């Protein structure tokens, strides 16, 4: 087979698996799990073959016209460059691990067939985005991911948290998609094509007339899809979905799509220095704000959610300084270690019976119950904190090096202001990242108190994939010298200055958090917490749903556990409550947008019911009254009808005579 034929199979196989799984889910349930795992696994293997054939060389393009439009054509096109083939391998690997993990995690879930089909469709949509060479075809995958996220985040629809989270995720991302769609049309109007190669060629020839407007419109969609300030608020709430879904969304699909889109079209954004500065400021606020929020969360998955927002901020920062190689490098390494973190968190929640770090800090022996999750999560947290030699260190250093070169004027793709903004924010975020990673590890695995419940060894399907994903978490960064061909050919090797500086501030953040924990941990034994531990013998998915409900009941919607033994509370001081509530952005949006919209809807409802309906009902009432009056004249008596006829004729005759006399007199 040719490389293009193989590339077509990569998104097609998961799609066919999703369709077959939905069709056979009820009639032949024994086929559901193979149809979930095997097509995705085959797509991952084929994606690896495509990457090997592409080899980081010249991009492979193939296209056929999908439909004539009369103006700008829409093509079914492939564009396989180094970025695309590597991201496709990541998507295939993580999706396969998620499907295998889910076979055990949701083993008794009656909605597993639809869940597995949606995961496969989600995977297919992301692969379509990755390989697509036409923006309209890319938009199809972009929107399919949005609707899949709605159903998957709302999988536990019995819980109010899942229902609200799925709706919020859908609406917030759609809010960004509206200007995004306008930006796509404006871009096509300026360049005359939706083909990515055609757009980049037009940009190189100066064919872009409104670069700032187009870039800002597109950034709105990117902010929604990749959870960047100010449209990031949906992602922490999306943790109400099953843990494997969280891993898929955070590591390899939906939130990565926005970053990947900007990387694909970076020359478009580079035409506007103002747009790059906007992107840099957006990334800086995202990095620092999410780091502070992560340090205050009690729900282990919400810590990881804010962590994802911050790491996406790093990628957006790399793009803001014009280095798409560093951005995609971090996207790949982050995808590996964040998948480990979420899947390991699912094991931890299953073993502990709770998602509350405060409750875990009052348990002992958890590391002995789940050694696989303990060791792989430890490795992934080292990668998250950018400690060498793990993958996160090399990819984060590549971003800081790019920011340093831009700030000092060694690179001229972006303004120096963007470079300084990303560099300073990146270093501050490195301190916060190390701090909340250390806090999570200490509270989850160094608890003191009653023994953690023991309900046997975790399923192999849940633990084996952790080690599979731990391999790139450890080793991917070490390939930095061998993979430059896939990253535009420029070096991603860290420099001594930024390596020492960022590692140093990261170690400071981790050590300070450890010192504070040593000081506060003695309070844990003297302070009870309100969270309820779920039944340990239930399946993992049921335990997670119970844990979320218990957590909300104990601590409220913000999840601010009043735990004096939490080192994050002491580190943040008066900021802690605000950080736990996401700096009240949801409350602000409710006041600025939700309530006015609800008030306007109430006004429209009043006008419809009390004004419009009054006229409608009034016209009907008038017709009914007239009908009643006429009906009374219908007596059925012929003499009455003749009398009325004669009386009427007499009246008409008299009126005619009077009218004639009046006219004669005048």
From TrEMBL:
Sorted keywords for this record are:
Membrane, Transmembrane, Transmembrane helix
Membrane topology (UniProt): Multi-pass membrane protein
Domain NADH-Ubiquinone oxidoreductase (complex I) chain 5 N-terminal positions = 68-115
Question: Does the entry feature the keyword Transmembrane, yes or no?
Answer: yes
User: What are the subcellular locations of this protein?
Assistant: Endomembrane system; Membrane
Query: Which spans are transmembrane here?
Result: 6-24, 36-56, 76-100, 112-131, 137-157, 178-201, 213-235, 247-267, 273-296, 303-321, 327-352, 373-394, 414-438, 459-484, 496-517, 641-662
One Pfam match = Proton_antipo_M
Q: Which InterPro entries match?
A: NADHpl_OxRdtase_5_subgr (IPR018393), ND/Mrp_TM (IPR001750), NU5C-like (IPR003945), Proton_antipo_N (IPR001516)
Q: Does the keyword Transmembrane helix apply?
A: yes
Domain NADH:quinone oxidoreductase/Mrp antiporter transmembrane residue range list = 132-403
Q: What is the protein name for this chain?
A: NADH-quinone oxidoreductase subunit L
Give the organism, scientific name. Answer: Streptomyces pulveraceus
Taxonomy-wise, where does this protein's organism fall, top ranks first?
Answer: Bacteria, Bacillati, Actinomycetota, Actinomycetes, Kitasatosporales
């Amino acid at each position: 087979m040719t490389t293009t034929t193989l590339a077509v199979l990569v998104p097609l196989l998961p799609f066919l698996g999703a369709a077959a799984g939905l069709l056979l889910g009820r009639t032949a349930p024994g086929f559901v799990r193979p149809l979930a795992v095997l097509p995705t696994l085959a797509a991952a293997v084929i994606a690896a073959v495509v990457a090997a054939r592409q080899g980081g060389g010249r991009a492979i393009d193939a296209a056929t016209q999908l439909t004539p439009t009369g103006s700008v054509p829409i093509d079914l096109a492939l564009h396989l460059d180094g970025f695309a083939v590597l991201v496709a391998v990541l998507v295939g690997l993580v999706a396969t691990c998620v499907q295998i993990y889910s076979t055990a995690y949701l083993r008794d879930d009656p909605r597993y067939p639809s869940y597995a089909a949606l995961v496969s469709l989600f995977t297919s949509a992301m692969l379509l985005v990755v390989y697509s060479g036409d923006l309209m075809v890319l938009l199809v995958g972009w929107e399919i991911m949005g609707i899949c996220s709605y159903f998957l985040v709302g999988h536990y629809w019995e819980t109010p948290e899942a229902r609200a989270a799925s709706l919020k995720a859908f609406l917030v991302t759609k809010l960004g998609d509206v200007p995004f769609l306008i930006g796509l049309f404006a871009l096509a109007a300026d360049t005359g094509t939706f083909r990515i190669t055609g757009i980049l060629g037009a940009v190189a020839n100066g064919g872009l007339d409104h670069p700032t407007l187009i870039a800002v419109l597109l950034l709105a969609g990117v902010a929604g899809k990749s959870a960047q300030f100010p449209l990031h608020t949906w992602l922490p709430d999306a943790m109400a979905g099953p843990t494997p879904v969280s891993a898929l969304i955070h590591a390899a699909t939906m939130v990565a799509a926005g970053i990947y889109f900007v990387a694909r079209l970076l020359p478009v954004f580079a035409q506007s220095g103002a747009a790059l500065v906007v992107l840099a400021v957006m990334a800086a606020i995202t990095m620092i704000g999410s780091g502070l929020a992560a340090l205050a969360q009690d729900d282990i998955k919400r810590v990881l959610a804010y962590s994802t927002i911050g790491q996406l901020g790093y990628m957006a920062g790399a793009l803001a300084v014009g280095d798409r190689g560093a951005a995609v490098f971090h996207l790949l390494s982050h995808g590996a270690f964040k998948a480990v973190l979420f899947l390991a968190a699912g094991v931890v929640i299953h073993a502990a019976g709770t998602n509350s770090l405060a409750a875990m800090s009052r348990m002992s022996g958890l590391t002995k119950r789940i050694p696989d999750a303990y060791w792989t999560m430890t490795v992934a947290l080292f990668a998250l904190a950018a400690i060498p030699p793990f993958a996160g260190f090399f990819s984060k250093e590549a971003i800081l090096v790019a920011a340093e070169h831009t700030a000092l004027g060694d690179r001229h793709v972006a303004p120096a202001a963007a470079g300084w903004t990303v560099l300073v924010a990146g270093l501050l975020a490195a301190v916060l990242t190390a701090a909340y990673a250390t806090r999570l590890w200490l509270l989850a695995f160094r608890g003191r108190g009653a023994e953690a419940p023991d309900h046997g060894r975790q399923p192999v399907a849940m633990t084996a994939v952790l080690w599979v994903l731990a391999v790139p978490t450890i080793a991917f960064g070490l390939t930095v010298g061998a993979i430059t061909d896939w990253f535009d050919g420029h070096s991603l090797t860290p420099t001594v200055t930024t390596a020492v500086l960022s590692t140093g501030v990261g170690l400071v953040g981790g050590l300070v958090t450890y010192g504070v924990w040593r000081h506060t941990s003695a309070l844990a034994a003297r302070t009870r917490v309100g969270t309820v531990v779920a039944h340990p013998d239930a399946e993992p998915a049921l335990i997670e749903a119970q844990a979320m409900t218990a957590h909300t009941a104990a601590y409220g919607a913000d999840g601010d556990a009043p735990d004096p033994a939490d080192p994050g509370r002491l580190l943040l001081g008066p900021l802690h409550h605000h950080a736990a509530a996401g700096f009240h952005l949801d409350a602000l949006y409710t006041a600025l947008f939700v309530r006015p919209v609800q008030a306007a809807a109430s006004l429209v409802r009043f006008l419809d019911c009390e004004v419009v309906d009054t006229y409608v009902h009034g016209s009907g009432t008038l017709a009914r009254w007239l009908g009643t009056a006429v009906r009374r004249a219908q007596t059925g008596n012929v003499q009455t009808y003749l009398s009325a006829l004669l009386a009427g004729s007499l009246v008409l005759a008299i009126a005619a005579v009077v009218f004639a006399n009046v006219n004669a007199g005048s």
